[in-house]
What we know:
Chain A is α/β, with parallel strands linked by helices and 254 residues long. Chain A has a domain at 3-89 and 159-245: Rossmann fold. In chain A, 31% of the residues lie in helices and 28% in strands. In chain A, the strands form four sheets. Chain A has a six-stranded mixed β-sheet, with helices on both faces. Chain A has a four-stranded antiparallel β-sheet with strand order 2-1-4-5, covered by helices on one side. In chain A, helix 5 runs parallel beside helix 6 (173-188). Chain A is globular and about 60 Å long. Chain B is mostly helical and 420 residues long. Chain B has helices at 14-33, 40-56, 63-88, 96-112, 118-143, 147-165, 177-184, 189-217, 224-246, 263-281, 283-293, 295-300, 305-331, 343-354, 365-384, 389-417, and strands at residues 172-173, 333-334. Chain B has a two-stranded antiparallel ribbon. In chain B, 42% of the residues are buried. Chain A binds chain B through residues 71-72, 83, 86-92, 96, 100-103, 105, 108-110, 113-114, 116-117, 120, 123-124, 128-129, 131-135, 137, 139-143, and chain B through 1-5, 34, 36, 210, 213-214, 217-220, 281-283, 286-287, 289-290, 292-294, 296-298, 300-303, 361-362, 414-415, 417-420. Bound molecules: adenosine-5'-triphosphate and magnesium ion. Magnesium ion (MG) is lined by residues 41-42, 84, 165 of chain A.
Amino acid sequence: MLLELSRVSKSFGPVEVLSEVDLAIDAGEVCALVGDNGAGKSTLVKCIAGIHTVDGGTVAVDGRSRDISGPRDAAALGIEVVYQDLALCDNLDVVENMFLGREKLHGVVLDDDAMEQLAAETLDSLAVRTIRNLRQNVASLSGGQRQTVAIAKAVLWNSRLVILDEPTAALGVAQTRQVLELIRRLADQGLAVLYISHNLNDVFAVADRIAALYLGRMAAVLDAADATQSQVVELITSGRSGEVGLTETNGVRP
Amino acid sequence: MSTDVQNPPETRSEAGAARAVAAHFRDYLAKVRGGEVGALPAVTGIIALCVVFGAADPVFLSVGNLANLFGQGAAVACIAMGLVFVLIIGEIDLSAGYASGVCAALMAVALTEWGMPWPVAIGVAIAAGVAIGLLLGAIVVKLGIPSFVVTLAAFLAFQGIVLIILDKGANISINNETVKAIAGGNLERWQGWTLLVVTVAAYAALQLSRWRRRVGRGLVHEPFAVVCARIAALAALLAATVFLLNLERSANPQLVSLTGVPVVVVVLGALFVLWSFVLHRTRFGRHLYAVGGNAEAALRAGVAVDRVRIAAFVICSAMAAVGGIVAASRAASVDPNTGGSNVLLLSVGAAVIGGASLFGGKGTVRAALLGGAVVAIINNGMGLMGLDAGVRFGVTGAVLLLAAGVDAMSRGRGALFGRH
Ligand SMILES: Nc1ncnc2c1ncn2[C@@H]1O[C@H](COP(=O)(O)OP(=O)(O)OP(=O)(O)O)[C@@H](O)[C@H]1O
Ligand SMILES: [Mg+2]
């Protein structure tokens, strides 16, 4: 397993946002993480990315328990996050954004040409054809193109696990499809993808497995091929669907 | 994607080359329409002002007045170059004017009362600028007080410090010939030409090697003709400037000859090259823009945001010190008004007129110089026309408003054309 979370818990003060969450993601698969607003999806992502430290449980990468205490640690392990609110600088161009914070240098001078070439190669390898001019400010890009840049930025660094927090939330139909295709391609290239979304159609379109969080607890992890939309909806809204799900929800048996 | 739009081999044929050049200009026009107006408003403004003032009074277009313009605008241009750095990160430094006064006063005291040699005295002034910037930057960044408030407080405090350094506001005259030459001296004729050749050769070498590198890597590149045209344009502009400035401009040549490129032009040129390099070719420069564009994104990308912001204030105050030195050199004295009155406002105006944005994320050193030229030309031209200070302030204010309007409009366009 590339990433394995076991019994991960996280509280903010008295509020327990995550409680004993188990989740495993393997290379080459898209795992969707679903759950209602406030279920703790973003918090879980931030625990993996090292922005929050976990209160209990372990985060293991390649079978070894890791202490991830910042975005740098996560990046060193090959974990990249594309956040819900896009982390792009509008006044920089595509290449500059993709290399921000990790610029290639030639002595003290920026090696812009090398960066442009690498960016072009990365976008090529992802079969991105929607971005024609790499020297254009990202302010002038569409939402889908911006999301593409953010994802390509995450892929640039030999990353092995890409986490996407609601990457299609603000996109139209065509642009959503582009991003979903891109997500599928990442997995086909052998990356592990953790994909967070509220849109079950999108989830079923790309995911190999679906993990449903309910009030900070992992209700169930299903194979997408075996699951139905209504089953997942029940898991999201009540933490239980037929035989699968939490045996007790919030201390009360359903 | 870039590799798809490489220039096809046909660009080698003449028709292909013409088409490539045409495409290049279409791209440029599209950029301008999309809100990236760059230096266009400032350059247009300079040309328009020159036409108007030249028509009103031919003296405006005389060689003597051209040399004069550089001297008049230099201090404000220096301060504006520094201000660009804080404007890029979305902050403001209202104390830059009086900071230049403090540093100039320190230099004057070091020269006269402490008897220091001129390089040390200048070093003291710049070190004071660096210290001021560190202090301002640390307060803004570490305590989280808005820069507007911090530097407004500093604006008041520095005014007092100048008075204290100058011993209740006495005027100190500067007799050191080298310091006076910074704003008052001229190069020999041959030095001007040598400098021209070296500058153009260096620029051409950089442009051509960059062009060849990009062709070699198969990246999008400008048509060769455009690169050559740019080099030729720079060469022509500089050659014309050197030629004009090398003409005799003394009112009474028998008595005293006055020729050559003013030293202050070289100073401005060197600072321009230095800070343009820092802004556009170094990681620090890239991070400055990133912090101004989206500090949160920069932070997540691993940029040392706090350090970058403090450094911007340091550069701003250090350049204010340089501006103070130039002003002191030009006046051959320092008094409590050095760096005072409207110096700061003209400097901010210069940066904004040139294309820096008060909203952050935007601005170049070139903008500061072009904007500084606009401000200097307005003051100079209206002075020649005999209009009094009241009218001059009014017009400068109107031009600033116009420039800010262009900025706001181009932002509006950027937003209109982006995102959706
Ligand atoms: N830094 C924090 N301090 C205190 N409480 C927090 C913090 N971050 C998140 N929470 C709380 O944790 C809970 C889970 O939030 P989280 O953002 O993980 O939800 P989510 O599943 O991503 O929801 P959404 O679908 O709306 O994005 C919420 O109740 C939220 O208020
Ligand atoms: Mg969330």
